[in-house]
Amino acid sequence: MQGFGQQSLLTAAEEKVLSKAVQRLIAMEAKQTEATQRLGRPITEREWAAECGQSSIHAFRKAVKVGQEARTRMMKSNERLVFHVARRYMNRGLDFQDLLAEGMSGLWRGVEKFDADRGFKFSTYAHWWVRQAITRAISEQGRVVRLPVHLHELMAKVTKVDLEYQSEHGRRAGNEKLAELVGISQEKLAMLSKVYMAPTSFNAPVGGSMDPGADTVGETIADDNEASPEEVAVRLNLHQDMDNVLATLSERESGILRCRYGLDDGRQRTLEEVGQIFKVTRERIRQIEAKAILKLRQPDRSSILYDYVNGASTQSVTWRGGRSKCHSS
What we know:
Layout: H1 12-39, H2 45-51, H3 57-77, H4 79-88, H5 96-113, H6 122-144, H7 149-169, H8 175-182, H9 186-196, H10 229-246, H11 251-261, H12 271-278, H13 282-296, H14 299-312
């Protein structure tokens, strides 16, 4: 745990620069994979550079290094997120170190998938991937708990070596390299991958998955109806922006709108019901509501929510956690 989560958080500008560098690296790695499959053998560094349209090996190495360092920095800057999410799932069948390992695997996927141009904070987006990896591992634990102890110990070693390699090199170790570092055969590593279906250590395609959209074990989503990380991020951003806009109104105006439209608990109320809560007549509630809505239509307020109204989010604006009078009524 020493040194875990010590790096400072990134600014939005830093996230954008780093994520673009990561995306360039992923595109380069995809070309490497495609060429390897096409040729039926591992390609050389110069061949990889050529596949990426780089004639200068020096420039190519620099581009790879920049991408790897960007990925590592995004990982390290968000270790505290993994720590906090993992702590919520303690005493569910996995020890804390395993929860952290699973969470770091989810964070890795989040880094690879993040698109800063969508306007999300990375921590908001990555939270979904971290939680998904941890909860999936917990659900898998019920199936693997009866396996021999020595396999659990070996898998823990594989996970530890894999994460250490990622942290040091900014990329995953291939199965051949990982097997070498752990001191086992590739066949045994493949067996472990199959038995544990481990998203922590392997980026292999899911065999026999019922989810046609899942291209790797780590991306397999147990609930097809679960909101995507993009949808979750949009919803959270909408909630925050709505709170910020309502905060520009008076406390009474904000509270009345929250009660009328069920922004805190999903229950819309009549003018009469809101009047009883605020101890004024229904006509007075109607007047205050109309005045508040007029204020919200002013450009300096309405512009904040414009993108959501025009299709950026189709999610309901209902959420928990408001502090209006009607929240508990």
